[in-house]
Inverse folding.
């Protein structure tokens, strides 16, 4: 008697959870339509899944847990979803890619740490937990990016980069309209994005204002990277070295005289007091020795 | 003619005997010399050969007679790694920013650090503390590495110049110089240093490794160990072990001279001064004048709860 009610309860709870999961997914991620319908150009197979598993274990496992085992970190708010669940698997490939790219609240963005290829590998791994999944391959050809010509010229008067992008198609030049353009400055541990990611206008152009307070090297040189992403042509980037930064030549942090520094860089007052102490002590000893000598002489007399 | 012939014959025999004598004595001499040389060579074993460490840190064996003394310079006295470790990276001033609002006590930073520096589980270069300022305020987690002060009290008290500050701001300890007096532990207001009371964790496995002052490996019993800002990784242009291990985007690391810090999780870069100004960044115990190179962003708008067991532990430290 007790058993069926328990079962019913659990079924009810489960179906409620599924509905809840659907709702939370639908409500929270505002994926743009053109991103939603994106598909992978990489065919998902065992090799892409195993590569994806390694990436998943390094980057996602600590919060989302092992797919299918339900060991996701439930202390977080919102709770990171179990990725083999129906709610997660109902998302399109494009939506998953968008989520990986943007991140939200507790979930970090992987835009800078994973390439698009690696993200597809992770998605390939996750799709392995969905038996009903059938991949729709995208007709995108990554070699098309070779056709793209990306030119970035620095305009000194405007203090801005004028970026022009076009593709050398068989039937002549074609301006890339509505492609994402972003400007970066190379730094020691990562690239600093300047301004926001812009979209190219009708003539395939974009203008990004460059701030005048970016520190460069001793001569003010900077390595500037321009990245372009187009849904049809993929990712293209150009790099150039320009003297548009603030010349920076700060002394080392152990240059100054300080009590903690090496002996040659001890503060002058310490050197002075120490030498004064040693010299006065020596003078004192000489004075005593001289007095002892005088005693001896007077005693001998 | 006959007489001549006889004479020549006679001469030949005499000459022959003469030559035979010369050759015989000669070969005898040569043989004995060879024998003596062989004997000398075989006798000359460990005592006549000596192991020498080259400037490139290679152990070679040469004969004692081949040694010529080289005038000592500071460069040859120190091993290559020690010299490199003392010099630091020119033109940089490394800085770390810790965002307390993101820390969830995942402790990946601690395990990555302990793995890299071969530390025992109870030894921490970086430690995640449970903090509660007053009874009414919210508790939070606070990772605490060495602050790499610009005015380091630990360096001032070291009697043997074992701990030092580099031009790029990193404070390191040379375990080969450290005498284990622990003055620096007493001087550090942040309790950032640990002492190797016992034989280090991987003592046997690490035997024979060349000591790297930028990694503190192999660790040495009876000496100090401390957070190194992962000087070996930074030299390669990589983020420190703890920074890149964090799954929650707590850590930012970068070069103050470049005015940029990079998040270890998202690899996203931000202007350092703007990040500090916009989020009310602060340093620990600024009243001491130690000028730390580690900045904290306050635990504002946390999106995770504090664990109940941790709350009890944090409350233990509240002032009565």
């Amino acid at each position: 008697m007790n058993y069926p009610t328990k079962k019913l309860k659990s079924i009810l709870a489960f179906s409620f959870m599924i509905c809840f999961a659907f709702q939370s997914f639908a409500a929270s991620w505002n994926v743009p339509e053109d991103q939603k319908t994106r598909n992978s150009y990489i065919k998902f197979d065992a090799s892409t899944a195993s590569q994806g598993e390694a990436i998943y274990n390094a980057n996602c496992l600590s919060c989302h847990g092992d797919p299918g085992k339900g060991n996701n970190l439930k202390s977080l708010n919102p709770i990171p979803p179990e990725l083999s669940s129906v709610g997660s698997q109902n998302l399109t490939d494009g939506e998953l890619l968008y989520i990986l790219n943007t991140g939200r609240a507790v979930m970090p963005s992987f835009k800078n740490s994973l390439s698009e290829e690696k993200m597809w590998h992770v998605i390939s791994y996750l799709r392995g937990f969905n038996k009903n999944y059938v991949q729709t391959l995208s007709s995108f050809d990554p070699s098309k990016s070779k056709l793209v010509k990306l030119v970035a010229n620095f305009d000194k008067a405007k203090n801005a980069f004028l970026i022009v992008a076009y593709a050398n198609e068989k039937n002549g030049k074609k301006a890339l309209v509505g492609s994402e353009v972003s400007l970066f400055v190379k730094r020691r541990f990562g690239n600093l994005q300047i301004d926001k990611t812009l979209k190219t206008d009708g003539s395939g152009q974009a203008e990004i204002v460059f701030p005048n307070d970016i520190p460069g090297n001793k001569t003010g040189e900077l390595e500037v990277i321009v990245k372009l992403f187009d849904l049809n042509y993929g990712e293209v980037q150009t790099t150039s070295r320009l003297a548009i930064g603030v010349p920076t030549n700060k002394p080392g942090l152990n240059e100054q005289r300080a009590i903690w520094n090496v002996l040659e860089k001890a503060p002058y007052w310490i050197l002075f007091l120490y030498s004064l102490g040693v010299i006065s002590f020596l003078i004192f000893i000489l004075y005593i020795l001289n007095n002892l000598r005088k005693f001896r002489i007077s005693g001998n007399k | 003619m006959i007489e001549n012939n006889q004479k020549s014959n006679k001469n030949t025999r005499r000459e022959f005997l003469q030559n035979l004598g010369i050759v015989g004595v000669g070969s005898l001499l040569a043989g004995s010399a060879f024998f003596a040389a062989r004997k000398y060579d075989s006798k000359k074993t460990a005592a006549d050969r000596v192991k020498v460490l080259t400037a490139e840190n290679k152990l070679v064996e040469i004969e004692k007679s081949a040694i010529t003394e080289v005038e000592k310079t500071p460069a040859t006295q120190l091993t290559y790694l020690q010299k490199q470790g003392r010099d630091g990276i020119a033109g940089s001033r490394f800085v770390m920013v810790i965002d307390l609002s993101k820390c969830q006590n995942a402790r990946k930073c601690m395990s990555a650090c302990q793995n890299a520096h071969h530390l025992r589980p109870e030894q921490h270069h970086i430690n995640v503390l449970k903090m509660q300022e007053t009874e009414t305020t919210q508790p939070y987690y606070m990772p605490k590495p060495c602050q790499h002060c610009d005015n380091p009290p630990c360096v001032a008290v070291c009697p043997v110049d074992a701990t030092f500050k580099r031009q790029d701001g990193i404070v390191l300890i040379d375990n080969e110089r450290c005498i284990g007096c622990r003055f620096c532990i007493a001087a550090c207001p942040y309790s950032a240093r640990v002492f190797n009371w016992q034989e280090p964790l991987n003592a046997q496995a690490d035997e024979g490794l060349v000591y790297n002052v930028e990694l503190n490996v192999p660790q040495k019993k009876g000496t100090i160990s401390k957070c190194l800002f992962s000087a070996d990784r930074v030299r390669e242009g990589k983020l420190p072990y703890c920074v890149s291990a964090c799954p929650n985007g707590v850590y930012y690391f970068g070069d103050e001279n470049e005015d940029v810090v990079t998040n270890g999780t998202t690899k996203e870069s931000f202007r350092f001064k703007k990040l500090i100004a916009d989020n009310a960044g602060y340093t620990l115990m600024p009243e001491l004048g130690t000028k730390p190179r580690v900045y904290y962003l306050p635990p504002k708008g946390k999106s995770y709860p504090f664990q109940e067991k941790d709350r009890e532990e944090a409350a233990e430290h509240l002032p009565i």
Q: What stands out?
A: The CA atoms of residues 177 and 202 of chain A lie 5 Å apart.
